[in-house]
Amino acid sequence: MDDFGVYAVFGVNGPPQKLLSAEGSSRVRVAVPPSVRQVVLFSSGRWGERICVNAELSDSDRMPITIGKLTPYNKCLSWEQWEEETWIDSVTLNVSLEGGNLSTEPEVIMAVKEYTPKDTAAPPAARELHGKRKREQTAEEEEGNDWTKRREEEENTCPNATTEKTTPVRKVRGQAKGSQKLFASGAETTKLKGAGGKAAEMQGTVGRTPPQSAVRTKSRQAKAPTHTAPLASPSGRWGQTLCPIDAQTAILIGGQGARMQFCKDPMWKLCTEDVSWVAAETLAEGPTPEARIGHTAIYDPDSRRIFVFGGSKNKKWFNDVHILDTQSWKWTMVEAQGKVPPLAYHSCSMFQGELFVLGGVFPRPNPEPDGCSDSLYIFDPRLSIWYQPIVTGDKPSSRSGHSACVMQERKIYVFGGWDTPVCYNDMYMLDLGLMEFSAVKTTGNPPSPRSWHGSAVLSDTKFLIHGGYNGNNALSDAFVFDIDTNSWTEVSAPELSVPRAGHSIITMETAGHRCFSEEDEDADMNGGRTLLVFGGGDNEGNFYSDLTTVAVEELLGAI
Question: What spans are recorded as compositionally biased (Polar residues) (predicted)?
């Protein structure tokens, strides 16, 4: 007998309500009463050949507020209103089953069974909600009266964004609806601190967007029915990771898109042989990481595993480590020893099988603003332990949204980042043999101060910095740094002319590019290699889903 079922509990006093069973429709839609502030979804019974249960909380326009997935390894989900900033009223729970012998019956629309405990007063939901709205209104008034105070309270909070072409954004008071900024506008007070330590005011405009019409999808056009045809490529997003796992394959994880919503399609596999995408979330077994942005994902070629660490989701912060074995395609969550704080927008580098995590944003108890870290933490996967090494020298100041490139398997170069209200364009180098930091004195025309930029190693001696956010605008310029001469060179490529921040940049093997000649010192690394740029946003409410490619040979030839 097949005893499989999917149940939901609406509110703290509600009884379990059966939504799906072995017989009947494989899709159900439930209107959540306005008084309900918590929803728990769980499965019971044998899964058999069933793959997963997709769950989505959507608003009155059928736009997703939050999504989740039940699997044979992750049988329970829970949501609370305080975690989802756009959960107000008229919320609908959509549940659909994948795999097994699916029924052909149409979608079922259900109502929540109202429940009031005997001899008890009804929960003060309306009063609490009223109080919450009043507090929000008061906060908005304070925001308008004292902009500087608001910036201090939101210190180091990375912008979370708006529509589907797009980038990260925080809503600005008085701004027209539908044109939210990815990042909070801070031209009046944001200081841009350069390598020389001088502060300067930075101004500029963002006007360019990718020419592809597919990328320019309006949020109104995105208001489609919940059950649509499978996507052929990832949705627009920022704050994701794109992690190469072999010469022609990369894995996309996480990100946030339009209307500050976490992506419904959080995991994809990219094949550069034919530049195609495959939705990969259901390909892997085990407990998948919760939706997040500002995390890191790095691949260890020796163990052939991806390590995902940290990140944030609305008011949640993570310090968990998830591992994806790319041979067995199975997720595991590490029960690590040692202490590491919840971090987001940090950097993570792989050296000799260990993860080097530097900087990032960490939460502080309310009403204190979030803080930036200047600490270095190392995770040893063999012992499943975190530890802090003894580091000497001139180390970088606290920051987040910076980049870190491992060069020649012995040095990590750290560039840029910010710690509100200061944005940086300085460079530091960590000698992995001596565990000693030093400030790098550079020559040439350096990038302007920025954070949330993209970076990629181009050769044994050169790496690229592209785009980012300067405290006011998204940027589109690109620079190559030479570690032999400690010099910056600005490079120009039409493919990199779109302003982006929070995007991903990697280099991989692709077909169609010739190798450098044997005389070229960089021939051993860049022959047939291509720079790939995915996603990010323009700080004008647009989140990108395009994949841009540039030959590494072309970039190095422009120096």
Answer: 157-166
